[in-house]
Fold:
Amino acid sequence: MTGAAKRILLEILGWVLLLAGIAAMVLPGPGLLLMAAGLAVLSQQYTWAERLLDPVLLRALRAAAEGVETWPRIIASTLGALGLGAFGALWIVKPDVPSWWPIDEKWWLVGGPWTGVTLILSSLIALGLLVYSYRRFHGKPEARAALESKIDEADDDAHEQRERMRRHKEES
Structure:
């Protein structure tokens, strides 16, 4: 594979991951994780993506830490991930349209089996992230404090960079 072809494929992959992450912010799925993966790929070619990578990744880790702070959150997250997998299985099996379905049957389980596969994959990713988050953050306030310190540091760096850019524009 030539260097140009590899670069184009990586750029397409980065944009697909980034857009999927943005979509997953409102749809089921690991939005911040996908966005971070997309930015990681795009950061190989774009400075703007490199600047955004750490803040997004740190926010994803914060969300992971918050998700395992209490047992009700852990249970709710686990049930949500398992429910997502169950819906995926439903999409793959595709039962007949129930009699209570109020709209045209072409809208019953739209997307077909591939929607089910992506829901199951999202479920497995969510469960894996729960295990990772639990092991890294649950009952470890020092890990959470270190993460918050990194977030504050990244925010301060971003603020300083914006201020430098603002002053540079004013001087120009």
Remarks:
- The chain has a mean pLDDT of 89.
- The radius of gyration is 20 Å.
